[in-house]
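Q: Hi! First time doing this. I have a protein sequence and I read that you can turn it into a structure. Is that right? Here it is:
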Amino acid sequence: MRNKRALCVSLCNLSELLLSQGQMASAMERAQRALDMASDVDFHVGMAGALRVLAMGQMDTGAIDAAGNSLTRALAFAESEAGIDRVATRFLCGRLALRMGDPLGSRMHLDAGLEAAAEGDPESYTPMLVAMRARADIIDGDDDSGRDGLAEAERLLDSMTPLRRGEVMVVMALAHQALAQPERALVLAREAAQVAAQCGFKLWELVAHSIVAVCVDSEEAVRARARAQSLARELCRDLPPEMEQSFRGRPRIRALLEGVSDSLGSKGFE
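A: Yes, that's right. Below is the predicted 3D structure, encoded as structure tokens:
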């Protein structure tokens, strides 16, 4: 039993790493193995962790309903038992709500995540929670609160690891797009694309380049769009047919592959 628990945790960590590298199918296969293993030994911490990683992969591939089901189960564990990371779970719930066009629901989850993070945040989710809360405020029409949140996220940038910094800058860039501030969005997206490329984080790099492509009117936009399109095709090639179809259906991916620039704006989370 102890070995299964340790292997489950290792599989979850590996799955999350594979997701960051754009290996979505491999990541989800390992997350499902971790979930099955945790279920076999009634390891709730492992089940919650595996469900979170599954939900991340499902959001990445565009399987929004499946992600919602996974997070509902993960949140039930997180809210009922000690030792389960409520911060990460609430963050993902807020991210999903924003993807589904529910900024009010997103704010509720993100506030709960920030409250949990005040008690302990070992994976440093606070900057992402702050940045995404700011974006949810802006999309919900509360621009002043959104600007305050962006200022706070800006202050936190220097304290982050490269991975977290790149992720936060992408969310901030999207928020500045929603505020009709393309100049600031461009600065953030440029740096985020560079960080993501250096670390091999393909999906975040794709999003960052697609933001650059609509924030500047020059040869840089052409190059950024071409790079984002190349990444989208590369990610598609690594997916089985059903996942590929779902991934291609994501508004940002569809816009890149079909050449519809208006859909690369700020309304979809990624």
